[in-house]
Amino acid sequence: MPSLPSLGGRRARVPDRDRPSVPIPVPLSAYVVDCGVYVDGERLSGRWSHTDAVDEVRRRGDGFVWIGLHEPDEEQIQGVAETFGLHELAVEDAVHAHQRPKLERYDNTLFMVLKTVRYVQNASPDTANEIVESGEIMVFLGRDFVVTVRHGNHSGLAAVRRELESDAEKLRVGPAAVLYSIADHVVDNYLEVTDHIEDDIDQMEALVFAPRSRISADQIYLMKREVLELRRAVMPLAVPLRRLAEGYTPLIPEQVRSYFRDVDDHLTEVSERVMNFDELLTTLVDATLAKITLQQNSDMRKISSWVAIISVPTMVVGVYGMNFDFMPELHWRYGYPMVITIILVACLTLYRIFRRNRWL
Description:
Blueprint: E1 3-5, E2 11-13, E3 32-39, E4 42-43, H1 50-60, E5 64-70, H2 74-84, H3 88-96, E6 102-106, E7 109-119, E8 132-141, E9 145-151, H4 158-165, H5 168-171, H6 175-209, H7 217-234, H8 238-245, H9 254-320, H10 335-356
Parallel strand pairs: 5-9
Antiparallel strand pairs: 1-2, 3-4, 3-5, 6-7, 7-8, 8-9
């Protein structure tokens, strides 16, 4: 343990809590979800490190490597970046995330960002705190490799990998088939989420226009916020998909471009639905505010009616509370019952008038 000289000539011991902490290195394997080597549409058996996998592919001169990472840090992804020659700017984006959907080309490498979404189940849309949860998938595409970096716990690609491994013909196309399958998987999730949101909006619409129902505008604003989050994931992806379908890079062969056109068609459908959701929620907000205004007007009419009724006995009692010696019927035996009767008749008359006018 390190020590320091004391004033009396002795050496004082430094407490453990004052010693600088040394970060514990985390191996890359902790961030690697899967690493596979694919040759002629088949996955080679065995466990591979990223260096062994790329060496095997380049030794054969055929096939490609697909390595999947989940939320790596800068230090851990550096080894992968050096092995595959990934551009430092793209690597920085992949580590820090929070990127908009985009497509960039660095020399012989393609970098694509896709936003993933997941619908959060709730008992009812008018009591939900969160409806859409978002994540990200970054894809590095090269001639003989695919590197996927995921952020978020719901953006797994295990199902996509299994589906591709069961289709040898598609895998023979190479890394471009992996990129297409990931994009198709993400857009299919968009469609699934929009189906759920459409059901929630239908329920909310029924509540808004149901007679005597009370729904807070805050819940509609929450739904609108979640739809805007979905919109930020969907809308910017249209341009990257069209560029891939139009031959933006030779890394995407002609036979795969038609598949990207199909994904783009599905994305267009999602975009139109999201725009409709936004417009419908704006209408529901206006309807809810109008309903709240009508309810407040109705409450104010009721309050005003009761104030008018209560003002009659208040006025009469106020007159007789002034303690004058000469007042009408002050010493008459039946003066008190007569005043009470007049008050009751006046109040009942006002009550019937307000009821007939539907103020009460």
